Amino acid sequence: MPLLLDDRDGLRRCRDCGAWKALEEFCANSKRPSGRGSYCKACFNVRSRASYAKRLKEKHGRDVKQVPTVPDGHRRCPDCGATKPLGEFPRNRAGRGGYGRYCKPCHNEKGKESKRRLHGGFREYHLRRRYGIGEKEFQELLAEQGGVCAICGGAAPQHLDHDHRTGWVRGILCFNCNGGLGQFRDSPTRLARAITYLRGTTWQRALIHPGVYQMRSPTRGRRPSRLS
């Protein structure tokens, strides 16, 4: 095959920019010599974008949306349209550059909207994801307890208690009772020792006559000083 005017020594001249470049810098084209097209990749991309804009205008009467230039170390949030440093985007291993697509405020708002749309609200999502029951089952369990904390009897408890080993739901507790079980690590032994400790260190009120009580000192411990 004779050498064309735009080919020489493994190089090709781009028909648009006129620069001589290596064949690897031209787009693949099986109909051309050496399997490469007539335009370098940079010029081909310019032509491709111009062709797309022309077709979009002719068929749909719309112009191509111009994407603003983003400086290094920044990203543009497609939701709010703001350009922010990468540190204001959540980490995401699957995302471009290791960061999510939306900035943190927009990411959080989209997460809330998704929970409302798929689960009816964040509370329903939280109960289903962590405990395997929904708000309906929560209210049924609370009604079985008489609407009060299963331990202290306080009104309107909001904390769902569960066995940390099996994940099974045990009841609904108030904030203090739920936290107390957690501090004692759900251990009946520790709770029994705590009861024994309180009985041995707390002054008891004993009935000695109808309507008459006497304070009995604990078996151990000391009376607080007057200065304390």
UniProtKB/TrEMBL annotation:
UniProt xrefs under InterPro entries: Endonuclease_7, Endonuclease_7_sf, His-Me_finger_sf
UniProt entry keywords in alphabetical sequence: Endonuclease, Hydrolase, Nuclease
Record flagged with keyword Nuclease: yes
Gene3D superfamilies the UniProt entry points to: His-Me finger endonucleases
GO molecular function, one term: endonuclease activity
Keyword Metal-binding: no
Name recorded for this polypeptide: Endonuclease VII domain-containing protein
Species this chain originates from: Micromonospora harpali
Origin organism lineage: Bacteria, Bacillati, Actinomycetota, Actinomycetes, Micromonosporales
